[in-house]
Amino acid sequence: MPKLKQVPLIMAHFLKNTLRGDLRSSRVSLQKYLVHALDKRLKNDGIIRYSFWKYNNSKKYYRINNSSKRKSSDIKFAIIYFYEKELKKKAYYKILECLKNQTYNNYRLFLINSNIDDLISELDKNYSHICFIEQGDLIANYALSCITKTIQGDDSIDLIYSDEDVLNRFGLRITPYFKPQYAPLLLFSHNYMNAFLCLKLTDQVIREISSLKKINQVSIYKLVLKVMRNRAKSVRIADVLYHRHWHHANTLKNTPTTETIQQEIKARKLNAKILDYKVKGFNLLKFYPKGHPKISIIIPFRDKISLLRACIKSIETKSSYENYEIILIDNGSKDEESLKYLNNTKHRIIKVGIDFNYSKLNNMGAHAAEGKYLILLNNDTKVLTPDWMESLLGLAQIPEVGAVGAKLLYPNHKIQHAGIVMKHYHVNRFLRAYKGGYKEYNNLTREYSWVTGACLMIAKEKFHKVGGLTESLANDFNDIDFCFKLLRKGYYNIYSPHSVLYHYEAASREKKFKSLINSERIYMLQKWNRGKGCDQFYNPNFSDEQPYFCVKINKYIF
């Protein structure tokens, strides 16, 4: 995607190629310009942006390749068409027509209201997988082919789900939901895996289905949670295979699932509570620490003592957690005011006389730390929420969790950090702090591939397990690299919306360090190039040019 300063050059190439008679090159140049202009001006989640996406994907048509096609009996779908009160003939005929047009046709449709006994006896002997469609909803013509192709690629997959959108009152497809791969904490907030849901029929799945009193959205949510509790292997198909009726979409928005998640929290023995939240369809979870382990707060700095003083004062006066130590890594302070402050502070000081190396300074602090948990903290931050340490610690204590990042705000109360996605964008940057943003992500405890090192908590044992921060990344990308290493070890990196601080971004950074960025960027490309295009917690249908969960339109659209 071209940048604004490149537009005059693009237009010059367009005119030059036109005069030469190279109309193809002219068309490509014009397309680049127009797509760039549209991407800048269209609303983040507007219907026009999704219309362009649908146009770009209109030729997508999955068929099973005959050379790799299995016998029809190998993959057979039991499609559960469920409804609450009565079967509506118009909706029924629509789903029949939809299934008739499927490019894979080894399935049987089951109409389910309340009695599922007959279904169980059928599932036990005839079918390999089960899918769910609510009355009035539809699926893409290639949905079953796409799922079949996924299953053929990996027999061990237990659960498959897809992206979805909404059929409005006029039958138009709007409001897509482009989903991440499996994110266990995000799944507690709402059942984003319920469409187009396909489960491999195992003894456990059949037992769970047979225990249901009826099949509806709530019972399917419970089923998904139980299956994923046992570490089922799941795959998200990044394509809109499910079209939800507008009435069902509205119902889901207003259906509380608090009781379901409270039961799941208890079953998994998690130390968490569901807080009151303004949006009914979402559960706002907060995790609490077990015990009071010591936390070591590591703050590298050099002079700029006004920033450090404000940072430490906010920790001392606002923090409700008491069992902590502050380790100040003095990287060669010389100002008289700085030296005077350091002579009078009660906190530990480690003097390091080296050129600035953020990674090395923090590693030294980690080795000197007495606490079981570490907080890497920039000196240009200020605590806002008293229980910021408890909120981080409650998550950091979960065995599967690696790094936990805070919600960081600019002084004008706009978001600086609420998670980092592919191409290292801070999501929803500059939105108001109280705004939930796309799917309320700003206010939900959820997984991201990366969180910022400006305020990051991790168990000391896990920090050392991945080798700490990479010291060849002295200035930038060290937190991104660190999170990559945690992901590679199988940990989840978590964003906590309940730990809120101000971040006076780059206030303590000196311009001379910016010359290092290019070499560090090259290092990241060489080491993690394969991982950059594969962000499991960010959907590839989102724009990789804007950090607001915008629908992607940066393909040729004319």
Q: Your description of this structure?
A:
With 558 residues, the chain is α/β, with parallel strands linked by helices. It contains 18 helices and 22 strands. The chain has helices at 7-20, 23-41, 47-56, 89-100, 117-126, 143-153, 184-189, 203-210, 217-229, 246-253, 258-267, 305-318, 336-344, 358-368, 388-396, 460-465, 478-488, 517-532, and strands at residues 77-82, 107-112, 129-134, 138-139, 159-167, 173-177, 198-200, 234-245, 272-275, 284-287, 295-301, 324-330, 348-351, 373-377, 381-383, 401-409, 415-417, 420-421, 425-426, 446-448, 455-459, 492-503. The strands form four sheets. Strands 11, 12, 13, 14, 15, 16, 17, 20, 21 and 22 form a ten-stranded mixed beta sheet that branches. Strands 1, 2, 3, 4, 5, 6, 7 and 8 form an eight-stranded mixed beta sheet that branches. A two-stranded antiparallel ribbon has the order 9-10. The longest helix is centred in the first third of the chain and has 19 residues, at 23-41. The chain is globular. The chain starts with 6 loop residues before the first helix and ends in a 26-residue tail after the last helix.
